[in-house]
Amino acid sequence: MNNSLKKSLAGLTLIAIGVAAGWGLAQWRTDTTHAGNTTVPQAGAAAERKVLYWYDPMSPTQKFDKPGKSPFMDMDLVPKYADEDAQGSTGISISPQTVQALGLRTAVVVQRAIGADVDVVGNVLLNDRDVSIVQARSAGFVERVYARAPGDVIAAGAPLADLLLPEWVAAQREFLAVRALKDESLTAAARQRLLLLGMPQALVAQVERTGEPRGVYTVTTPQGGLVAELMVRQGMTVSAGASLARVNGLGTVWIEAAVPEAQSGPLQLGQEAQVRLAAFPGEVLRARIVSILPQANSDTRTVRVRLELANPGQRLKAGMSGQITLKGREQPALLVPSEAVIRTGKRALAYVVDGPGKFHPVEVQLGAEIGDQLVVQGGLEAGQQVVASAQFLIDSEASLRGLLPASPGATPEHGAHGAAPAYTVRGVVEEVSTAELTLAHDAIPALKWPAMTMGFKLADPRLAAGLAPKQQVRFTFSKQGEDYVITAIEGIKP
């Protein structure tokens, strides 16, 4: 019996200790929660901030009359203070506890010189501007073809084929007969006829010197390079103007690259580029843009660019690939982290830090994206601080309070000068009372509100007359103070 009594006393003691510990822990949490919400005592009295309501930052449209856990997320409700509206209609303020709980980070708008360099992959091509076509100057027969094949690299003046040209033989005999007449004017006219038939000056001089016609003519290449095509074969009959070979020069080569359409605007003819080919690691070659093709690829959204590159020693081969860096001029620009900008498709917003826990939204004009940074072309200044994380929650609060800059895509209805904008939307009645309606309404893009259910005050109790749950309506509301108030409503047919 004594043992049972001792056990009972011990149990009661443990319970008392637990209650005391729980009370102390609750007091500590309460003090911690409200520590940032009090001001320094002045003249022995603590100035307390007035709380209007509590809300969940993830669902700021729902208001609660006392603190506690959010019914939507596993987090504490956040107080909304009366003095948070004192900074005017363009900014909001957030308590230090909320800033810390959200893990809010800021970044500085920096100005620095950036180069519009574009890195792309390119392929080496033969220079199609350095091409020679070898043709037969008169009809005849192919008596011999020298040891050539497509793909061979030959020097300038290399022989390709021997052609027997009967027309040339006849013209040369006529020339020799006229020359025997010793008439200088007739001889000069006959000599000019040989040149007009396509005979080289050296061949005419040789015929005149030897007095013997030469019917076999050796066709040679006018320039050195790659034999791209060889269309002549022994025993062929050729006509005047027939193509015998195509020779591509190798003194320079092209490098062709596909530049993304979004980066092709600043490109200019003559712009310099650096080339790094896989065949020559560590070596940087110099090139320049010689052509920007006038048609973009509609499938890849790219623009083709050709660069010309010197090819000493014929080291560069068609088909090689490498990295191309198109060098642009450096220009000063404002940069912010990409994560600091909220892009809605119609506009871009950033939240500027006005002070500890104080922010206001600014619409910004964006330029190119460089790594994880965005070029800002308007809306911000160097040295300003912007919110770099958790700004979507701040954006929700700004939307709730109607503090966002006017959007070009928004279509609110404006009343008289200075009146708050009104919004018209469809919804379904959930609950009806003389002072408030609870409606499940459609999304409101102008306020960045998704479709949701919320309560609206009534400007006139008579607006609720005849309404019933599940009824579809069209209503107009505006923000009046801290409330969203319905000013007009009508039933619509499903």
Question: Mind explaining what this structure looks like?
Answer:
With 494 residues, the chain is an alpha+beta fold. The protein has four domains: 101-115 and 332-400, conserved putative lor/sdh protein from methanococcus maripaludis s2 fold (Beta Barrel), CATH 2.40.420.20; 131-246, RNA polymerase II/Efflux pump adaptor protein, barrel-sandwich hybrid domain (OB fold (Dihydrolipoamide Acetyltransferase, E2P), Beta Barrel), CATH 2.40.50.100; 250-328, Efflux pump adaptor protein, beta barrel domain (Elongation Factor Tu (Ef-tu), domain 3, Beta Barrel), CATH 2.40.30; 422-491, Copper binding periplasmic protein CusF (OB fold (Dihydrolipoamide Acetyltransferase, E2P), Beta Barrel). 18% of the residues lie in helices and 40% in strands. The chain contains six helices and 31 strands. The protein has helices spanning 2-35, 96-102, 166-180, 184-196, 201-210, 391-400; strands at residues 51-56, 59-64, 78-81, 92-93, 106-108, 110-115, 118-126, 131-135, 140-145, 153-154, 159-164, 216-220, 225-230, 237-238, 243-248, 252-260, 272-277, 285-297, 302-310, 321-326, 330-337, 342-343, 348-355, 358-370, 373-378, 385-387, 422-432, 436-441, 452-458, 472-480, 483-491. Strands 4, 6, 21, 22, 23, 24 and 25 form a seven-stranded antiparallel β-sheet that branches. A six-stranded antiparallel barrel has the order 7-16-19-18-17-20. A five-stranded mixed barrel has the order 27-28-29-31-30. β24 and β25 form a beta hairpin. The longest helix has 34 residues, at 2-35. It is elongated and about 130 Å long. The two termini are 77 Å apart. Residues 1-46 and 407-418 have low confidence and may be disordered.
